[in-house]
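Project channel, design review

CF: Before we commit to the Subtercola lobariae constructs, I'd like one complete example in the thread so the newer folks can see what an input/output pair looks like. Taking Class II glutamine amidotransferase.
RD: sounds good, go ahead.
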Amino acid sequence: MCRWLAYSGEPLRPATVVLDPQHSLVAQSLNSPLGNETVNGDGFGFGWYPSGAVAGSIPALFHSIEPAWHDTNLRELTGAIESPLFFSHVRAAAGPPIQQTNCHPFRYENWMFMHNGFVSGFAAFKRELVFAIDPSLYLELKGTTDSEVLFYLALTLGLRENPMAGLAAAISLIEKVGREHGVAFPMQGTIAVADGATIWALRYSSQGATRTLFHSADIEALRELYPDTAWLNLFGKAAHVVVSEPLNDLPGAFLEVPESTFVTLDASGYHHQPFLVAA
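CF: and here is what came back for Class II glutamine amidotransferase:
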């Protein structure tokens, strides 16, 4: 469906991971070896928290319906700013039209959200899901994707208080309503959420066969293993990325996130938990 990347660590020029690596996100938009769609050219998005921003700061967004590989503004922007936490996403549309409001990441207050996957049979029960969104959030819906509806359902059901519980409740509702409409496996995807300080990532599908998800290994450990690899020195000790697929072929640089796993990435590093959805 799509490819995405989330970075957290010392302030960094986003181009360092979005554009420059061997298998950068922009390179993956042209050729995604681990994706279900090789080409992801139906628009892209980039969202970032400014350097020095205080807790609760609202992230900035840049969306375009151009292919990521063709957009000079993306190159200018990611080469000019620095950010300690940013998201980037390249899209392969699977039904909803190609328009800026359908490009990830989505934003509500200080929260960002992006998704690679789909809600199977979404059109048949979209109305029920949209009506389950809290009325105070309903007017925030701008696009037509299942991903954006999932985000606002999770906000409605407690994402801001407990991201894992909020996502679990939203996915449980989607599975319940989907199965009532004859869809055996309603949910598919990997998800990233951030509040400006922490990134939460999820790999889950109703069928137990989810799109790929990886995160980087510890930079200091990689420097010890590969002391002559100069590009590792571009990153600080706290630098971490969560990605749909690895950005390079360096052995041990990226670790696959297991199926049905919820990952918290904060100042202390990665923390994995089993992700369970109520029957």
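RD: helpful, thanks. The radius of gyration is 18 Å.
CF: Residues 2-274 form a domain with the Glutamine Phosphoribosylpyrophosphate, subunit 1, domain 1 fold (CATH 3.60.20.10).
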